[in-house]
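Title: Comparing notes on inverse folding

I've been comparing how different people in this forum approach sequence design from structure. To keep things fair, I'm posting one structure and asking everyone to reply with a full sequence. Here's the target:
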């Protein structure tokens, strides 16, 4: 059983983003980058499934050459080999999904696990688009994954509780934060990851046009929050809310 895990290199979640002075985007110069946290959860889940019949984990990243670092991290965690699709221009979710669909045709995985969204643009689209392009079943926002005979059970939170959907393999799964806690790669595994195979390709190798279809008009920082106030008791709180027009 083969699992494909797409991963994305994003601004590290501990770094406070800075908007460029000209408002064209987020300043990524000289800041720490790392694997998208939701994708890290996807890699961890694939590794855990190795005890339940998974024989190979292939990780894929689409982006600049520096995305090799992200793939090496996934290999150090336990993935078996990597594919880097090099694109120095930003690839939008539909372009990513089309490239992944082509890779799926070549690799023929039984399962694709990917983060529900990337923390840089929060689009939450790629998994759904990939499922549509492949006409595969999809289980989004997974908080629990169980491989069954020729199928996979995906549990996800819904209003008022949780539901479990059974998907016939092959299928697409997107991960929620509750699914697992990713492991840290050990130093020996980091060293071993350097010798694991990594193939490089380009979008043109798959015949996919990644010309952007969206135009960013302007990026601005959120308005600064004003300082809060303290009130002495509930009566003062109610009076303040009435004063603000929030309560009558």
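Reply #1:
Here's my take.
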């Amino acid at each position: 059983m083969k699992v494909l895990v797409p991963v994305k290199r994003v601004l590290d979640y501990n770094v406070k983003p800075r908007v460029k002075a000209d408002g064209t985007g987020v300043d990524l110069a000289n800041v720490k980058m790392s694997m998208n946290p939701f994708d890290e959860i996807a890699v961890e889940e694939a590794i855990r499934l190795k005890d339940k019949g998974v024989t190979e984990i292939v990780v894929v990243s689409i982006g600049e050459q520096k995305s090799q670092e992200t793939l090496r991290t996934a290999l150090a965690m336990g993935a078996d080999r990597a594919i880097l699709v090099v694109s120095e221009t930003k690839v939008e979710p539909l372009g990513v999904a089309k490239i992944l669909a082509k890779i799926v045709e070549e690799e023929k995985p039984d399962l694709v696990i990917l983060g529900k969204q990337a923390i840089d643009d929060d689009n939450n689209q790629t998994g759904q688009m990939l499922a549509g392009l492949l006409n595969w079943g999809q289980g989004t926002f997974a908080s629990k994954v169980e491989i069954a005979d020729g199928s996979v059970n995906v549990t996800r939170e819904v209003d008022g509780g949780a539901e479990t959907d059974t998907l016939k393999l092959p299928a697409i799964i997107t991960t929620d934060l509750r699914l697992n806690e990713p492991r840290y790669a050990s130093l020996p595994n980091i060293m071993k990851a350097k010798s694991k195979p990594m193939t490089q390709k380009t979008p043109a190798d798959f015949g996919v046009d990644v010309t952007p279809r969206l135009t960013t008009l302007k990026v601005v920082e959120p308005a600064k929050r004003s300082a809060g106030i303290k009130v002495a008791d509930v009566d003062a709180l109610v009076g303040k809310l009435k004063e603000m027009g929030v309560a009558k």
